[in-house]
Specification:
271 residues, alpha+beta, 4-stranded antiparallel β-sheet
């Protein structure tokens, strides 16, 4: 009889542990929280690869930017039918104040950020206030045109245009240069609604910064590139010519080539 009681006690203990593990890890609710937590952690760390594994919704880039290096805590976990809504609140005073992730069948179906989010969409007290600046940011799809992964970087290298000799106004390789200019045009056409501009700059040695000849060459080259971009349909107000980048001749190993003119994408979305 004593052995039977011991065996029964062990069975009950194991059953309790198994039940606890199930509810902790394998219920739809637990799975939803685990997926949402992993997504928030990836956004906090700006781990693009991990973030992309969890969410591919159209508005996920907004969450990715909003959660960058911002402390957060789980605020609520509710469900409507089979969809679970996991809401997080950020601990700082910045906007947006909340992030909410909707999970259905272990897959994220919606990500929302705002200042007035309820536990579920029906609990929102008013229209979601999204940080509109984030909607102006370049997305991963936009960056693919540039072969770049620097999501939300302020400055993204678009192209490096190379000219002939010291004073030439012709590109050293016309075919390659045309392809780069067309690439800039394609990028603009796919991202024209976003808040960015092109910045064109050349290089000059610091010692010649005030001399007319090097400055004139750079100015002529940057003006040529500006016009080439405008001719390809990019509005003039999106293409700026910046001051030449002066470098120290003593840093010979790091000296940029004077024949190079750079086209940078300046991302204004977080200004």
């Amino acid at each position: 009889m004593k052995r039977l009681l011991i065996a029964l006690s062990i069975f009950i203990l194991l059953a309790s542990i198994a039940t606890g593990i199930y509810f902790l890890f394998f219920t739809p609710r637990a799975q939803a929280q685990r997926v949402a937590d992993s997504t928030m952690e990836a956004a906090f760390m700006q781990d693009q690869r991990a973030f992309a594994q969890y969410t591919k919704t159209n508005d996920s880039d907004i969450l990715y930017a909003a959660a960058h290096q911002r402390n957060y805590r789980l605020d609520s976990l509710a469900h409507v039918d089979e969809t679970f809504y996991v809401r997080y609140s950020f601990s700082d005073s910045s906007t947006p104040r909340y992030a909410r992730i909707a999970v259905l069948g272990g897959r994220i179906v919606e990500t929302t950020v705002g200042n007035t989010l309820g536990s579920t969409p029906k609990d929102d007290t008013q229209e979601v206030t999204v940080n509109t600046n984030q909607r102006a940011c370049l997305s991963r799809d936009n960056l693919r045109t540039l072969d770049s992964t620097r999501l939300y970087a302020k400055t993204i290298r678009g192209a490096t245009m190379i000219f002939g000799d010291a004073t030439a106004l012709d590109y050293v390789n016309e075919e390659t240069s045309t392809r780069l200019l067309e690439r800039m045009s394609t990028f603009y056409n796919t991202a024209s609604e976003k808040d960015f501009s092109f910045l064109i700059r050349g290089y000059i040695p610091a010692a010649t910064e005030t001399q007319d000849s090097p400055l004139s060459v750079v100015q002529n080259r940057t003006t040529k590139i500006q016009q080439d971009l405008i001719d390809r349909g990019i509005p003039r107000d999106r293409v700026r010519i910046g001051q030449p980048v002066a470098y120290n001749l003593e840093q010979a190993s790091e000296t940029p080539n004077d024949r190079y003119i750079i086209i940078d994408i300046i991302n204004h979305c977080n200004n």
